[in-house]
Amino acid sequence: MTAEVAPLSGSRCQAPRCMSRAGRADAKAGSSSGAMARGSARRARVPGSRVPGSRVGGRGAQGPRLGPETRVPARAEYRLPGAHPRAPGAWLPSGARTRPARLAGVGVAGEGAESPGPTGSCLVPEAGPSSAVAPARGAGPPDARRPLPAAWQHPFLNVFRHFRVEEWKRSAKQGDVAVVTDKTLKGAVYRIRGSVSAANYIQLPKNSTQSLGLTGRYLYVLFRPLPNKHFVIHLDVSTEDNQVIRVSFSNLFKEFKSTATRLQFPFVLEARTPQRDLVGLVPHGARWTFLQLDLQDILLVYLNRRYGHLKSVRLCASLLVRNLYTSDLCFEPAFSGAPWAKLPVTPMPREMAFPVPKGESWHDRYVHVRFPSDSLKVPSKPMEKSGSPPEAVLLGPGPHPLPCPVASSKPVRFSVSPVVQTPSPTASSQAPLAPRPFPEVSLSQERSEASNVDGPRFHSLEPWARVKASDVHTAAAGTHVLTHESTEVPVALEDAGSCKRFLPDPILRLKGVIGFGGHSTRQALWTPDGTAVVYPCHAVIVVLLVDTGEQRFFLGHTDKVCALALDGSGSLLASAQARTPSVIRLWDFQTGRCLCVFQSPVHVVCSLSFSDSGALLCGVGKDRHGRTMVVAWGTGQVGLGGEVVVLAKAHTDFDVQAFRVTFFDETRMASCGQGSVRLWRLRGGALRSCPVDLGEHHVLQFTDLAFKQARDGCPEPSAAMLFVCSRSGHILEIDCQCMVVRHARRLLPTQTLGGPHPQKQTFSTGPGIAISSLSLSPAMCAVGSADGYLRLWPLDFSSVLLEAEHEGPVSSVCVSPDGLRVLSATSSGHLGFLDTPSRVYHMLARSHTAPVLALATEQRRGQLATVSQDRTVRIWDLATLQQLYNFTSSEEAPCTVTFHPTRPIFFCGFSSGAVRSFSLEAAEVLVEHTCHQGAITGLTATPDGRLLFSSCSRGSLAQYNCADPQWHVLRVAADMVSPDAPASPSTLAVSRDGRLLAFVGPSRHTVTVMGSASLDELLRVDIGTLDLASGRLDSAMAVCFGPAALGHLLVSTSSNRVMVLDAASGRIIRELPGVHPEPCSSLMLSEDARFLLMAAGRAVKVWDYTTQANPGPQVYIGHSEPVQAVTFSPDQQQVLSAGDAIFLWDILATTESDQSFPGPSPACEAGLGTGQLEDAASRASELPRQQVPKPSQASPPRLGICARPPEGGDGTSDTKNSGAPRTTCPASHKAFTPARASRGPHSAKGTSLPPASSEWLRLKAVVGYSGNGRANMVWRPDTGFFAYTCGRLVVVEDLHSGAQQHWPGHPAEISTLALSHSAQVLASASGRSSTTDHCQIRVWDVSGGLCQHLISHHSTTVLALAFSPDDRLLVTLGDHDGCTLALWGTATYDLVSSTRLPEPVHGVAFNPWDAGELTCVGQGTVTFWLLQQRGADISLQVHREQIPETVGAGELTSLCYGAPPLLYCGTSSGQVCVWDTRAGRCFLSWEADDGGIGLLLCSSSRLVSGSSTGRLRLWAVGPVSELRCKGLGARSSSVFMERELVLDGAVVSASFDGSVDMGVVGTRAGTLWFISWAEGTSTRLISGHRSKVNEVVFGPGESHCATCGEDGSVRVWALASMELVIQFQVLNQSCLCLTWSPRCCGRPEQQRLAAGYGDGSLRIFSVSRTAMELKMHPHPVALTTVTFSTDGQTVLSGDKDGLVAVSHSRTGITFRVVSDHQGAAISTICVTRKECEDLGVEGTDLWLAASGDQRVSVWASDWLRNRCELVDWLSFPMPATTETQGHLPPSLAAFCPWDGALLMYVGPGVDKEVIIYDLSQKQVVEKIPLPFFAMSLSLSPGTRLLALGFAECMLRLVDCATGTAQDFAGHNNAVHLCRFTPSARLLFTAACNEILVWEVSGR
């Protein structure tokens, strides 16, 4: 229904009449291998009258069957329904026995908390050293339930012997298990072998329901793995709270994995011979291993749990096992060795010892593995639990446990030449502290101990301190836990004196979240005022303002939010997270502060419901035994500093899918589920319920319920009705007082009865549609169903009021409190609302439905691309966070993505090995390559976009040529990239200068650096060195290049380090150890090398990269799943992190460029958000400027939602001007081409040019720059003089104040400028006009702005001007048609010499070191001219040199002098050649670009080149002077490129300072850029439309104006300064018409623009929200005009076929089409407010339409009543063809603003005149003669002035009161547009892409 922000090219989003479509418009993407895209549309349908009524059925129900619900009373025992009292000592069901609750900060009233039940019976041994009996089941406290330490288990226990494994009674074997004799141990061992490990094993005990009950801390496994096989060891370990954890060790695992109930450790086996992949098959010669597992530390370190006992063991193939032992003692197997003689060790018992022959060492024969290693010392008890998981945040730089055991006796270093080995980290001399989980910090200090329910209070190993925090909470070492604002935060300080912080702290702030749902898509709520929507996005709760799109967040949950509830006043928000046991948070909704955190007795909460006052909170879910439980909490005192109180709990055997507290009585509730609807009541500290007699409906599966709200707000329970829906389509209406079903209705599928339109849904018999949710208002019922429809019904369900179709099943609906909006959510991750008054559907949020795997950003258009496990590739707008495109693949999964740096293209790699390029303009696949055999693991492009690289899971690396449109494959190299490299977007990286390529490979223990162009290996770094102390064997996880100036290569390793290497030598520069307990999968360094960004588990870490002291990082949480990718935004102002959702973080640090250059913020260029329009206007008026604008970090910045790509690749655009045929330069070099040869303003009779003193208009401002010129901009930094051309005008602008001077006089477009060396004289040259035979050259006095000399000689366009070094001569060069070179003396500007050149010449320059020498370059030759003066005569001596064949260039296109005697020349093929002017020879050349070099500038040692591709490059050419002596043997290897910037079009002009540090550059796209090489940035100074401007409109209040053009853009300007504020861009479409909504249509912040396009579409843009609200297709052909009705609710649009469409501006529905003008294009539509009774018709609006057949129709309308009546019809005679030269001017008409009865018309006719027609008299009352046919018309609303534009480049102003007129010149083209501002103070005129702003003098 509403269109997307930034409309998509190629999207299918059509809106037929009487129907609008909503949802997303998906782009097409298809290929031969099955990639495709889905396109769908959503509709909101207003049903017609032919709809059958609903059939309401149902039978009366008998009285309800009342009975007590299964519940838990206040005492510690309870009875089941119908059960007799329990006898003493009777068994209770599992989990039935209760104990008093131990609650921290939560009061208990009326109920105790249940204790956990046993997890299985203990296996009691039949015999043992001593007798011990396991405790009885269910008896005693939980601590007594686990097996107690028994004497028979001390000092150790032989497990195999004790449980008699050989008998297989209490143990089990499966598969190939046999007893064999081992020669090494000289005894019997068990051999377990088989190809499948899971099918061949020994298991103790035999049954999974039993338990070993072994309490020893250490488990000793004596085994030997079989060669070339895999093995697995599974341990089931029980914690103190009876949670069973599966701990597994295997050489099958390649990485460490951890969940709440599972730990997987890879087992590394080291061979005696070098091998690269240590995790894998067992090598030959594997030895017997003594595996010592510290079970207590394993649980403590990795899961923060207490060890209880060993429950079971499973030994899986393939291995030999001798025995298992448990003990509380730590034995040393090699007790007799010398290294252990003086250490207090416990010797190995003889029974456990391995035999060692005399004279041999134990370590030479066997392997000892101790895990965790001794380097990690942990406390004897776990840290106290908190809301944050251990992996989320770790305090300080603490230790990191070894992720895998390494089996080795002697460490061996592996290296392969040539490699650079990294030294292994040294062992710490002091045992570090154990990693500790971050405590809960969302509460203030005085409440921190009241946050945990039924658990220990917070205790810290360090003293607590208090610090202030605002948005982000801080901890030691800069750690941040995002839990939103809190006044005081407890902070654990750890070595605060030695740990430095970097500022600001915090440095990141969450700005936006892309995503919805996570755990469920059923949780979405309206706020009580209806202005915002509350919904979860995984672990974050988002509050979204629906009118502005702004987001705020509730942060603190560490797992996905599964339930939300908001009280009736909007003061309390409750949320629950999904992790067991569930934690519930209460928030102050207004401030965002977390008031309370408590643990729910319900393990998995599925629903929360507040009472209207917020004093009662009810929750429903499953307890630990899977039974449904209902809990009621008292929350009335929470906001006053009190505590949450458990009021009652109850168990029920009935299913509960929905639970609600009634709005009329806080003690009453209702629930529904499978086959039941129950009414609940809270009384006397107990929850009781009774069922509703459902009769025949008792088998239905009910899904949701809602209470009917009385219109009069009656609070009586007797007036309450309950509506319940089911999956079978039934909706039951239940009387809550009588507990009977009053009505039963059923939703049936749509039935089509032969008509053209489908019929409405009915309630009858037959198969129903599953209803998932419903919501009620006093007047209607909203229903969401599985068929994807949201339907609105009246409460009697007589007919459908409105419906909206969604893409996926609707999972939740919610009616706003005012009943005007209906929120809907779908299971496919879409969230939006239907506005019922306007019948418009608004999309609020879209999201991936699975984790995001990779992301990429695009600089020019500000876009973000993401790939996800849901098999989609989505393109997002970074400014609005809205989805632009969605590419879907059904057969293969996308793996990685990257943008082309300069083109609207992105590349995507797939799991099939295919790499495809997608066009964002055409929304289709361009090219596909399938050179890979495995899934694509890496994809990256060079910054210049010339090369693309891809890698796959099978190790191949491919290189592509992106300069070629087909981007052919250049090379494919096998076995280059490690096939075992982690699936990470950072395993392949290109340096910032594009010269180097780095990747993980050929093994995962090495990193290789190659030349990106040649793929020659430059460096190989061995990461896999073994640490002697810890036994770690490193492997590379991610690589990243730093800025090119630093030359750093960053590598993150599996040992949790980040190493900074020299990219050239591999030398270690620095190291960040212990960055995170888990390996870092993605890292990124900012462009200024200030901040290092890491993806660390579920957190994002930011390091201060500039500080060598390695301060701790700042850590930010919020993701509920591991972060897959992190990156900086293109402007380096924001951070993006992707995992479960996409987070956008603002960087709060002030960049260095921001501190030095207070330029405009990027937000101004990207478009303003809500409320920023007025701010932008105020900023725009803050003139004069204090200094020259300086660049931002973006290079180059881009305006608008999406930028238009350069047309033709060089930024040129077709202005579509008619006239004399143009002559073009050779294809290799585009020179100046005049716009057209037009008649001047004085070429006809009747023109009236006023004297300057009495002019009615004064030129105030010029918008635009002529990119068609060449060298038509000059800037002198020492004097500040800045001038450029726009059409026929020279514009001189003060960069400090922004004020402009305009120097008119040229009869044609100015082609070039030249400023004298003294900066006192400016020369300008123009093309030839129709009134002159020669081109005009004007010489201006810079100080006075007056033209001093007017000279002419060239018959064709002047291509170049140049002053001699002493300013005594001026040389002028004609284009390739004239080929004339003229020399002028500047004393009198007389022609000194002129010559005809034999071939076209493209450039001329004086030698700065010798005024008597100048040089020309052209086609194949360099011409050296020597000036010889004899008296007053000057003669020219010519010397020509051919271009050497080694240069390989056909023509020279540019030149500049360097250090004497060097001359640099650019060629059309991108070469730069260097000449020795003394010897007249070329001695050096190099390839500088792909396109022609059109500009060269040089200082002594630096050269700037600009090309037709838009690249501006800075070269270091200092050594070139020394190479001159080598002659032809000189090589270009000493010339290198320092920097590069890519602009928006071909470079046509440039001016730099003497050191070439900064300058101004002009492009063919009509943009002037300020360049700073020191910062490496470009800033837009001047910019306009690239092609014809079609309309100018003005906003209410005249603070802003808007323009549209054929370049597809709609631009909003600040009227005071004419600075661009907002840009809306539509690709591949021309915007032909535009209108601004009137002031009366709504509030100022609701200003809207309506724009018509060439494809017949009409788009509505919101100016305040910088978003597209609506897209509709009212016309099949191009629109020509559009306007709003006077009330702003209706849009009138006309097209080139003569149809006028009338549409609703809110819904997009076209409800009337006027076809009276059909056959001739509608040229204008004008609307005015007028009571039409005096014209004999009824209506509130009077409007007219004029068409190209000289007809005007006048209509009276009242659109609210759907009335439209013809008032008058005017026809004018057709002119003779000779009068218009075959081109008819437009027919234009407008109502007279000073007399509503008058109408003015101009157009083709018998006479050139303005016709004034009186509507009341029905006759022409006046005619005003004109000198030409008018092309444009505008009437001043304040004065009686009439403005007319003519094709003769002239503007006429007519005073209708006096009949006088004045004519004005200034434009270079037909003045096709003129518009007065509403106040009549300004007049805007446009000719092609030039916009002139005139100030109207007071009259």
Offer a concise description of the structure.
The chain is an all-beta fold. Helices cover 2% and strands 42% of the residues.
Layout of secondary structure:
Blueprint: E1 19-22, E2 35-36, E3 42-45, E4 106-108, E5 156-158, H1 159-162, E6 172-174, E7 176-182, E8 187-193, E9 201-204, E10 218-225, E11 232-239, E12 244-250, E13 257-258, E14 262-266, E15 268-269, E16 289-294, H2 295-303, E17 307-316, E18 319-327, E19 331-332, E20 346-347, H3 362-365, E21 367-371, E22 406-407, E23 420-421, E24 464-468, E25 473-474, E26 480-481, E27 488-492, E28 508-514, E29 525-526, E30 532-537, E31 540-545, E32 551-554, E33 561-566, E34 572-577, E35 583-588, E36 594-599, E37 604-610, E38 616-622, E39 628-634, E40 644-652, E41 658-661, E42 668-673, E43 676-683, E44 686-691, E45 702-707, E46 721-726, E47 730-735, E48 740-746, E49 771-776, E50 780-785, E51 789-794, E52 802-805, E53 810-815, E54 821-826, E55 831-835, E56 840-845, E57 852-858, E58 863-868, E59 872-877, E60 883-889, E61 894-899, E62 905-910, E63 915-919, E64 924-929, E65 936-941, E66 947-952, E67 957-961, E68 969-973, E69 988-990, E70 996-1000, E71 1006-1011, E72 1017-1022, E73 1036-1041, E74 1048-1053, E75 1058-1062, E76 1068-1072, E77 1082-1085, ...
Parallel strand pairs: 4-40, 12-14, 15-22, 16-21, 19-20, 23-72
Antiparallel strand pairs: 1-3, 2-60, 3-52, 5-18, 6-9, 7-8, 8-18, 9-17, 10-16, 10-18, 11-12, 11-17, 13-14, 24-27, 25-26, 28-83, 29-30, 30-31, 31-32, 33-34, 34-35, 35-36, 37-38, 38-39, 39-40, 41-42, 42-43, 43-44, 45-46, 46-47, 47-48, 49-50, 50-51, 51-52, 53-54, 54-55, 55-56, 57-58, 58-59, 59-60, ...
